[in-house]
Amino acid sequence: MPKSYNRDLILLAQDLRRNMTEQEKRLWYCFLRHHSLRFQRQKVIDPFIVDFYCAHAHLCIELDGDQHYTEEGLLYDAKRTRILNRYSLQVVRFSNSDVNNNFAAVCMSIDNEVKKQEHSLAENKNKQGEDKLDTGR
Length: 137
Known about the structure:
This protein has one domain: 3-Layer(aba) Sandwich (Endonuclease, Chain A). It has 5 helices and 4 strands; from the N terminus they run ααβββαβαα. The protein has helices spanning 10-18, 22-30, 71-86, 96-101, 103-135, and strands at residues 40-45, 48-54, 59-64, 90-95. A 4-stranded mixed β-sheet has the order 1-2-3-4, sandwiched between helices. It is globular and about 45 Å long. The relative contact order is 0.13.
């Protein structure tokens, strides 16, 4: 399923980039901006805007404030994650508290997830190549 985006959300995404939360700013300016892989901020994907996105690793990173921990917020986030998973995207969530109080652990977790995703994608690519050999294509 190809990733698409809603052009109506682009202006909102631009506004969100200009008005990031303190936790988003910290993660962006102190870590993701300088990561060896390219991350994007406030990326529009289909009907959603994800906080951070790495195309190479098929990875979305979400920072969750208090509103995400209500019953309604949890249900919405679960539905959103299922839809993003259909695009073969992995969604990783951290609370704002994690960023504030365990920043090094958040960064390490992101690095580990990137490596895991890269490994998984490489395995899938190799498997597809083996399947083509088995079928003679």
